[in-house]
Amino acid sequence: MPILAVVPESTAAQHPSSPPPSKPRRIAAFFDLDKTVIAKSSALAFSKQFFDQGLITRRTVLQSSYAQFLLLLSGADHDQMERMRAYLASMCTGWDVEQVRSIVAEALHDVVDPLIYAEAADLIADHQIRGHDVVIVSASGEEVVEPIAEALGATHTAATRMSVADGKYTGEIDFYCYGEGKVAAMLDLADREGYDLAECFAYSDSITDVPMLNAVGHPTAVNPDRALRREAIANGWPVLTFSNPVSLRARLPAPSSTTVAATAAVGLSALAAGALTYGLLRRKR
Question: Using one digit for the tens of pLDDT, what is the confidence trace for 126-153?
Answer without folding.
Answer: 999 999 999 999 988 777 777 778 778 8
